[in-house]
Amino acid sequence: MNINRKVQTLDEFTIQQMRDFPAATGQLASLFRDMGLAAKRVNVEVNKAGLVDILGDAGSVNVQGEDVKKLDVYANNQFIGVLRHGISCAGVGSEENDDIVVFDDEISNKSKYVLLMDPLDGSGNIDVNVSIGTIFSIYKRVSELGKPCTIDDFLQPGNKQVAAGYIIYGSSTMLVYATSRGVNGFTLDQAIGEYTLSHPDIRCPDSGKIYSVNHGNFFRYMEGVRKYINICQQKQKSEGGPYTQRYIGSMVADVHRNLIKGGIFMYPGTIDKPKGKLRLLYECNPLAFIVEVAGGKATNGQQRILDVKPTELHQRSPLFIGSSSMMKELETYI
Ligand code: P6P
Fold first, then answer.
1. Which DSSP state fits 279?
2. Domain span holding position 148
3. What ligand 1 atom has the least distance to the C-alpha of 66?
4. pLDDT in tens, 193-223
5. Are 122 and 145 in a shared domain?
6. 42-64 tens-digit pLDDT
7. Do 125 and 95 fall into the same domain?
8. CA distance 54 to 304
9. How many CB atoms lie within 10 A of CB 277?
10. How far is CA 182 from the centre of its chain?
């Protein structure tokens, strides 16, 4: 009987990576396993969101002043619950928590890593069945091992990330993560409940024909951004066009599509909100890390996103991210 051993599961893949690094302690592999497990539980609820009373508001408002959907709360609790009982994470910074969550116990205090996350990004789309996602970012602690983690572990620039990833709950459920060695995508095989390597060594095409931006804010963008958007709208075949505009209001889905097909995603600042809407630590940095490892670029309009020194857990940042040559053309306008 021919057993298909070609398709690697997430665990097999991360263990294989460990074999290549004998000094590895297995904590990072265990962290990916923890995220994958919690995401399977979130996926079950996302898939039946239309059937049970898990839609609608949880009746509370999060630190961002946004109505918290029940699924947001459920997802946040699932990820924090699994990480707290793991062996790899000393604490979590989450969009759903005002302050860092410190897992102050003997094992967690010895853990090497901390994790930042948006447990369910795009939650406004939950009720209309549009793809949503989890975004996470992993740092090595700078605080003393054996003691509780501190805010300094979380306020590191994005260029210090050890790994970053997202889970997209869409037509299929995929976990994509990057380390400095590459970006790999794993599709959840519901039949065996395992993530299987479906997109090895993802590379962001150097160029593309997709630009993603909310045109509703057009007249509130800075002049350079408006000029670039006009350029996108006028691209001729001879210039690699015509471009198409794709924006579904769920960043993980928009960035994932552009990562695979080539393209540029923009969430610029506006006259009334110059820092834009997106969060630096658990939205911009992880996606910037992934796209850069895949060969793309990401800036805040002034500098490389990964070089920004954070000052607050929930600080916002404008974001321009995508194919290298498209980003270079954008930079000539902003
Ligand atoms: P707007 C979802 O709430 C989110 O944070 C991102 O996933 C998405 O790209 C963006 O906001 C959409 O925001 O202002 O265009 O509706």
1. B
2. 10-199
3. 3
4. 999 999 999 999 999 999 999 999 999 999 9
5. yes
6. 998 888 765 555 455 556 666 66
7. yes
8. 39
9. 18
10. 15
